[in-house]
Every structure is written in C-alpha cells, then in structure tokens.
Fold this protein.
Amino acid sequence: MREVEFKAVNKTYPNGYVAVERLDLRVEEGEFLVLLGPSGCGKSTTLRMLAGLETVSNGDILIGGTKVNDLPPGARELGMVFQSYALYPHMTIEDNLSFGLRMAKQGERLDSREIANRVGEAAEMLDLTQLLDRKPKALSGGQRQRVAIGRALVRRPKVLLMDEPLSNLDAKLRNQMRIELRRLHELHGTTTVYVTHDQVEAMTLADRIAIMHGGILQQHAPPLEAYHNPNNPFVASFLGTPAMNLIQGKVENQKFKAGDLCFELPDHLKDTQCGNYTFGIRPENVNVVSQGGLRCDVRGVERLGDQTIYHLNAAGQEVTALRHQQIDEGFTSTTVDTSYVHISLTEPATVLFPQ
Ligand code: ADP
C-alpha cells in the first residue's frame, strides 16, 4: 500500500513560528494530490516533513500504513523532483538517470542489467531515448525537467514528491509539461504529492487539491468541487481568474444589503437566517441584463479576445463580470461602450458565507 497520511501534524520552527497546524490529510494509493496555496502557507514544509528533510513537531506521518516520523529520507522509498533540476553537468543523460541506482549501498544495489532496463524504460516513457548520450547543457529546459523526473522514477518510488517542478520553465513549456505530467501519472499511477502556488496547475493536474492558508488546511476536494463549492471566502477567491466577487453585508427579509446595494436573494438562498454574511458570485455568473437588475457604473473594460472583463461599481460595491465573446442580446459591443450597464446577481451559482 502506498497511501500517505498526515495525522494531526504540526510544525513549529525553532524560532517559534508555526508553519503547519494540526494537518489531517490522506492521499490515497495512486492519487495525484496537489498542495496549493499562496507563498508562505506551509506547502513546502508539509512536503519536506513527508520527505524526511524536516522534523515533525507533533502528530504522525504514515506511508503505506507505517509511521515514518523517525525514518531518514533514504529509507522512505520516495522520489523527489524539485524546481531546480540539479543534474550532473559532466555526466550524460543516461548516467544522470542511473546515478542514484548505481550509488545504492552494497547489498541494496540492483544488477547492471536491471539498472539498464529501468533507465531504458524511463527514457522511453519520457521521450528521452534519442538524448541518452547528450550532456544536460545540450538539452532544453523541458527535456532537463523530464530527466529530473526520470531520475526519480527509475527508483520505483512508493510516492513521488514534486515541489514547484515547472516554475523554471516558460509559459508555453509549462503548459506542455503539465499535460505530460498528467499523462505520465495515468501511465504509472504512482501516488504523487505536488506543491504549487499556481491554481491552473492544481486544477489541471490534481485528482484532489488540498488548499492551505496560514499553515491551516482550508479544503481538501476534487478541483471542480472546490471551485463550485468553496468552503470559505479564502478558497473562493484563490481559485478562479478573475477572482470570485465577495461582498460583505447582511441578510434581512430575504434581501442582501451592503451599504447602498440591496437586492433580492436568489431562490436557493431565500431561507437564509438574518445576520452578517459574505455574498459570493463568480464573474462568469454575473449576468448582464438589458432590463431590470442593478444599474452599475462601468469603471473599466479589458478585452482579451475570447473574453472580456468588465470592472463595475454597483451602488458602491466593486463587481467584476466576465463575458465570453459572443453576439449577445443586451450586451453587444455597442452597449459595453456605455458608461453603465444593468446586472443580475440573483443567479443559482451564488454562495453566502457566514461572517
Ligand atoms: P510555502 O512552501 O507555502 O511557500 P513554506 O512551507 O516554505 O511555505 O514556509 C511556511 C512558513 O514557514 C513561511 O512563513 C516561512 O517563512 C516559514 N519558515 C520556513 N522555513 C523556516 C525556518 N527554517 N525557520 C523559521 N520559519 C520558517
């Protein structure tokens, strides 16, 4: 079994800083889990504790049901891929791939035929077979990153750990590598824990994402579930571009009020008890209507080709609307040039978070 479990894991650094707080998280065998969150939220600390590069202050980490808190990194049977590929520049790609296996301790070392088999298989899978005789400097960034992944895979790790492995690549290559990583995972099925601050990477790679903020796990769910049913305003605003509109106000008599802004709640929220809430609606769900609705001033328009983003002000509240390009009744290219539009926030895809 190659599942990973964090049980009430805490990390307090020697200076007293609590980087991870009571983390309970399970990664199933064969699952691709992405740890996602802004810089400093505790993702790398979590990964480094799993790798054995950082001690656990409290709680337990289990791999395949065995507690590994006190096992050194080499005994955890993990493969690791980091942001910097750290290939040996004077060695060929073939030697880079086999180095870890050749350097294994006497008694644990594989015979040379098995090493050659594993290197050949990894090279084939990663499309590196034609490049085995080259040195790293004769490879592109993407090819080097594939070697770094291959070097981890030849060890047949129980769990593959990746820390921002694509952040040194340019945007186009990052997109390609994302697709390759997912394909590779489907081929290999290795339990994977992947750290990133990039929500697009998380949404496209993960079976489930674990979103962290301030050392605390906010939500652990499949990407689309977290997108459509965020647990809290942090998750709501972290997933999605442009970010979800979040308006702080109160519910009274089936209406939502925030300063001068006041509108009827959509049907599915009508039974909400009175009190203070944050109202959330994604920009793509803000409906621009020809009649009725709320009148908004247009503060800015960004035309991106396939979509247009409208920055609006609704009775003092900032609202962003996103329209996919289409000839659209009530919101054609002529109407967007006006200084105001009408929107409806009474849509099914809206949420209320208690404050
Ligand atoms: P992330 O990977 O999400 O960017 P990290 O896990 O690297 O975040 O760090 C989490 C927090 O712990 C950060 O605020 C960071 O400054 C702090 N931190 C990391 N390493 C140490 C350390 N050795 N001593 C004290 N604080 C640290």
Summary: The longest strand covers residues 18-27. The chain has a mean pLDDT of 91.
